Amino acid sequence: MDFQARLEALTHQLRPWSPLWSRSILQGWPGSAAAFPEDWRAYARSLDETGERQLDQGVLVGAPPSSLSALLGSLQELTALPWHEGIHPLTVAQTQGLSAKKTHELERVLALLASRTRFIHQAVDIGGGMGHLARLCARTFGWTFHSIDRDAALQDKGRRWLTKTRPLGGDTLHFIQASVEDGDQPRIDPLFSGRDRASIGLHTCGPLALTQLRKSQGAGFVLNVGCCYDKLEAPRDYPVSRFGAAHPLPFTPHALALTTRGRHHKTEEEFARMKQVYAWRFAFDLLSKQRFPERGFVRAGDAPRTLYDGPFAVYARDRLERLGLEPGMTDAELDAFEVSVRAETRELLLCHLLRDRFARALEVVLLLDRAILLAELGFQVELLQLFDPRLSPRNLALIASRGA
Asked: Which Pfam family, giving just one, matches this sequence (predicted)?
């Protein structure tokens, strides 16, 4: 893949729509609606519940506006990435106590490593937790493996697990309690350097992915799966490549948060739950704007799941008490208010469904920039889909190799 051409094409498509994807809809409402073409909003209003769910999956039913159809078609084409095929089947004993998601990820990571790391003899895993990947790699490939994590309790569990399952001949797995940080770390930095060394980071949170890439410049092989892009900061963490710096997009905290929403595989139940959560949050925002305009945007915060299952009044009362606000309304009046703004809260929902269509493209931009950085450092680089997004939505893997 020509990463530079792909990044340039994506930024060309995304840049004109930055007022739509770089800002919060809710915080700027109702003014934020102006970023959405009226024919897009009219089309979204025409959808029934099935059509809304289709839109959430990136599928346009009926007769969508040509500009929307053309844009989404281009974004889907530019974010289509090859898949890594194959799994390394694990036995029941090897996966005992592991979740279906963890088992799925390990089987695919092991298959990827098996076909690309014949010259590797040592490896390091960032955020290795209990060391499941390290244990399996040490036994499957015969590597000396260092699993780094800052959580000593998790590592203690991993040691106990290792003791229970230790084969004859022992393991070459070592746990290191440490935080992987930018700057010199004499204790762990040598583990990342050497043509026979692999550096692995699965679901490295926010800027930790970039820390891994910087520390791994001397490694023979690098595997990184990022997540939590909302914890990044621009321009510190984007762009990171020279080419990306020449083709930047205006990433804001709101845009970075949007990159984590690229999930098109919600079940009916998950979609219904999302709509209910949005309905109560949006109604609460409209209520606070009406009753407490001097407060500006009021953050409702995450509420217990049960509050979204009951009446709006119960949810609103809980949030108001948490914020120390008194609206001077009875529960009946709070529920009546929610009913009165349903047309507006649906409009907010539809704008969010349209804005979410940019999420995957923005995520791919971040990863293309990282891929180009690795290429600029002299690696041969791949960007592949590795996990089933229904199980592991952040499923894009950066693979970089210098060869033997």
From this structure: Methyltransf_32
